[in-house]
Specification:
The chain has twelve helices and 22 strands. It has two domains: 239 residues, Metallo-beta-lactamase, Chain A; 146 residues, Rossmann fold, CATH 3.40.50.360. With 397 residues, the chain is of the alpha/beta class. The strands form five sheets. It has a seven-stranded mixed β-sheet with strand order 1-2-7-8-9-10-11. Strands 17, 18, 19, 20, 21 and 22 form a six-stranded parallel β-sheet that branches. It is 34% helix and 23% strand. Bound molecules: MU-OXO-diiron (FEO). The site of MU-OXO-diiron has 8 residues, from helix 2. MU-OXO-diiron (FEO) binds next to helix 2.
């Protein structure tokens, strides 16, 4: 069955139903690697797939055209989930010229022997005529890698956006309006939080660059194609890229003998009130992907750990290390946790929160062995303060 975006523009990608670990991204719903074939006076393949799916792409393309007749293969992004199949694809399409920007050509040469490839380098704003349709290229550096690029077909108001607006979502249906939008938006949010968040500024610059371009359909490299809910995904991206927080307080923690958990619960109790979404996340009962997604739009975050071998517990350290790389900005925050004969856990967290330049509202809240009723009252007060901050927090501009 063909999946047709416009007349003679078809999806020829692959669905990866079983992937659950995408270099540590927990892909609970699998993913897809989207590639598209445009048949005009010239024929162009837009993007490829991950190497193990090359034959699937080639079979889909061969059902639509003679592979010898493919004139161009556009590479919008050199990451191997899209470029991995290029050697096999270009071998099967011997008359195709690879079209990409200069940085992409260099990156591809670092991954593959490209000496026999015909490569046409394009720059921001360049166009390539296919006949009735045109490919126009917009560079989008750091969305997701330095070479990243969008390809736009003005005659169809169709944007191939590679990773941007994508979702790791394996689905037999290819369009947003055919699927459960709550699931699609959740996966788009998870994708942005775990892939796009460090590049908020370039994402915003890209959105601004696109503001003068008429777009009726966005075809990303992962997940479903946006043809009915463009306003929703654009608006969500603007909020995420602006670090716009919701009145939401997270209590992220680990625990050994439930002392730190009792503190976490008291902070949660203090934060919970109408209009504030408060929640607790035990780091070993969740995963980094979900935690980052929750942090994306949280206004306030309390992070707790008991002291283990003079340090915070390892999964708390992993969480803070991961968040530090993703660079969520503008959170009100505080550290808490228990200790026995030696200090270290809450202090480690406090240092990490300050290094992320979060707005740390107080010195670490500690309990020696077990939290006393007074300490639990202090935890409730901290929860209240974080909720107040969450309600008053303005988006960063
Ligand atoms: Fe889907 Fe950055 O690769």
């Amino acid at each position: 069955m063909n999946i047709t975006l416009r007349e003679n523009i078809d999806w020829v990608g692959a669905v990866d139903w079983n992937i659950r670990d995408f270099h540590s991204y927990n892909t609970e719903r699998g993913t897809s690697y989207n590639a598209y074939l445009i048949r005009d006076e010239k024929t162009a393949l837009i993007d490829a797939v991950k190497a193990p799916f090359a034959k699937e792409l080639l079979a889909k393309a061969a059902a639509l055209c003679d592979l010898d007749k493919v004139d161009y293969v556009v590479c919008n992004h050199a990451e191997l989930d899209h470029a991995g199949a290029l050697p096999e694809v270009l071998e099967a399409m011997p008359n195709a010229t690879l079209v990409c920007d200069k940085k992409c050509a260099n990156e591809l040469a670092a991954h593959f022997d490209t000496s026999g490839w015909k490569i046409q380098e394009v720059a921001d704003g360049d166009s390539l005529s296919l006949g009735r349709r045109t490919l126009r290229f917009f560079t989008s550096p750091m969305v997701h890698w330095p070479e990243s690029m969008f390809t736009y077909v003005p005659e169809e108001k169709l944007l191939f956006s590679m990773d941007a607006f994508g979702q790791h979502y394996a689905c037999g249906l290819r369009f947003d309006d055919e699927t459960d939008m709550a699931v699609v938006m959740q996966e788009a949010k998870t994708y942005y939080a775990n892939i796009g968040m460090p590049y908020a500024k370039p994402v915003m610059q890209c959105i601004e660059k696109l503001s003068g371009v008429e777009v009726e359909m966005i075809a990303p490299s992962h997940g479903v194609i946006w043809r009915s809910h463009l306003a929703e995904i654009m608006s969500a991206y603007k909020d995420w890229a602006a670090h716009r927080a919701r009145p939401k307080v997270l209590v992220i923690y680990d625990t050994m003998w439930e002392s730190t958990e009792a503190m976490a619960r008291a902070i949660f109790e203090g934060a919970a009130r109408p209009g504030v979404e408060a929640s607790m996340i035990h780091v070993r009962r969740s995963n980094l992907t979900k935690i980052a997604t929750e942090v994306l739009d949280a206004a306030a975050v309390a992070v707790g750990s008991p002291t283990l071998n003079r340090r915070m517990m390892p999964m708390v350290a992993a969480t803070l290390c991961y968040l530090d790389g993703l660079r969520p900005l503008g959170k009100a925050a505080a550290a808490f946790g228990s200790y026995g004969w030696g200090r270290g856990g809450p202090e480690d967290i406090d240092k990490a929160l300050r290094e992320m330049q979060w707005d740390v509202v107080r010195k670490p809240l500690r309990a020696n062995w077990r939290p006393t009723p007074e300490t639990l009252d202090e935890c409730r007060l901290l929860g209240r303060e974080l909720a107040d901050r969450a309600l008053s927090r303005l988006p960063l501009e």
